């Protein structure tokens, strides 16, 4: 069957997407900079976390085969490139108010709990060719958790050999399957539909949500005011990472509850008690329209969909 001609994203649409992303981030910055959560340890979705004590475990060994699954598939392993959460300095004033520091550069949070690192840890477990089948299943399920409303999203029941045969294909982002990309990132493809960027640049996370295209479940009793579209609030705790593979684009959705509180952080992504941060103390905050992780509340993977499948939250082509 002949495949359709590649359709690069039109330049005007790419510019519009980037403009909207910048507008959303700026508008959120005003809210976040003056937000003071009651405690640094508020845990949205704590009921879900309580029944999933094993969820979110990460590899800590530093051996040469730490990322055997990613390496076997040719997927870039986590590193500085995958840690893309930027935090900005916050000034605490004597009257207790807080504002973003003027003329201060942001810092990158290198704590390994962000959306891309979390997604790669889960995919690594799925693709790991080592160990017994029981160990493989245990490792995969240990990295999959419920979403913010306590709902689960089972991974594909494909046999293990199918996962082991999958290979990374950066060019999938320019394959012409535009409807198979569920992140609002403007990939730059050549006129003949080729990807000329790096492998790491082909792996992107969601920069902003289009609320009319999302249907994230609303936690019971945890929704916003009835006069506000709940998707505008609930979606902030999620992120989706696109991985281009040989069978199409994979989408890994992660839940990051810290984003709902926009906590004050130190430079190592530890959450700070706002009552203990005094004038002159060093503190940071993240300005983001999508989820991010902290040491106390790392992101956790809630769904992995492979090529041709649609994320649970997407309303695209169903309205």
Shape assignment: globular
State the distance separating the first and last CA atoms.
Answer: 28 Å
What are the secondary-structure elements, in order, as H or E? HHHEEEHHHEHEEEE
| Number of H/I helices | 7
Strand content: 5-15%
The protein's oligomeric status is single chain
Question: What's the topology here?
Answer:
Elements: H1 11-33, H2 46-50, H3 68-73, E1 86-92, E2 98-100, E3 107-108, H4 115-127, H5 133-142, H6 160-165, E4 204-205, H7 230-234, E5 238-245, E6 248-255, E7 284-286, E8 300-305
Antiparallel strand pairs: 1-2, 1-3, 1-7, 4-5, 5-6, 6-8
Helix pairs in contact: 4-5
Region (Disordered): 37-97
Biased composition (Basic and acidic residues): 41-64
What would you note in describing this structure?
- By secondary structure, the protein is of the alpha+beta class.
- The chain has one domain.
- Strands 1, 2, 3 and 7 form a four-stranded antiparallel sheet that branches. Strands 4-5-6-8 form a four-stranded antiparallel sheet.
- The radius of gyration is 20 Å and the shape is globular.
- 39% of the residues are buried.
Which features would summarize this protein structure in a list?
7 helices, 8 strands, 4-stranded antiparallel sheet, 319 residues, disordered N terminus, alpha+beta, globular
């Amino acid at each position: 069957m002949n495949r359709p001609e590649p359709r690069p994203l039109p330049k005007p649409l790419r510019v519009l997407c980037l403009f909207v992303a910048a507008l959303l981030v700026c508008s959120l910055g005003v809210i976040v900079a003056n937000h003071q959560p009651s405690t640094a340890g508020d845990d949205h979705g704590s009921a879900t976390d309580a029944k999933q004590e094993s969820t979110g475990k990460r590899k800590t060994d530093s051996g040469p085969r730490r990322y055997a699954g990613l390496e076997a598939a040719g997927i870039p392993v986590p590193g500085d490139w995958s840690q893309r959460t930027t935090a900005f300095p916050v000034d605490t004033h004597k009257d207790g108010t807080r504002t973003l520091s003027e003329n201060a550069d942001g810092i990158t949070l290198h704590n390994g709990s962000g959306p891309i690192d979390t997604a790669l840890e889960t995919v690594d477990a799925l693709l790991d060719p080592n160990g017994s089948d029981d160990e493989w299943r245990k490792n995969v399920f240990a990295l999959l958790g419920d979403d913010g409303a306590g709902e689960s999203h089972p991974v594909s029941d494909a046999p293990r050999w199918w996962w082991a045969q999958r290979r990374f294909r950066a060019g999938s982002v320019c394959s012409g399957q535009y409807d198979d990309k569920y992140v609002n990132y403007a990939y730059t493809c050549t006129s003949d539909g080729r990807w000329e960027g790096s492998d790491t640049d082909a792996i992107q996370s969601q920069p902003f949500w289009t609320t009319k295209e999302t249907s994230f479940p609303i936690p019971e009793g945890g929704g916003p005011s009835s006069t506000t579209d709940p998707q505008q609030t609930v979606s902030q705790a999620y992120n989706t990472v696109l991985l281009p593979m040989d069978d199409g684009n994979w989408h890994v959705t992660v839940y990051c509850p810290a984003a709902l509180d926009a906590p004050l952080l130190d430079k190592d992504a530890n959450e700070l008690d706002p009552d203990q941060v005094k004038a002159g103390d060093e503190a940071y905050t993240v300005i983001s329209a999508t989820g991010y992780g902290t040491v106390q509340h790392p992101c956790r993977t809630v769904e992995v969909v492979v090529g041709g499948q649609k994320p649970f939250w997407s309303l695209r082509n169903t309205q």
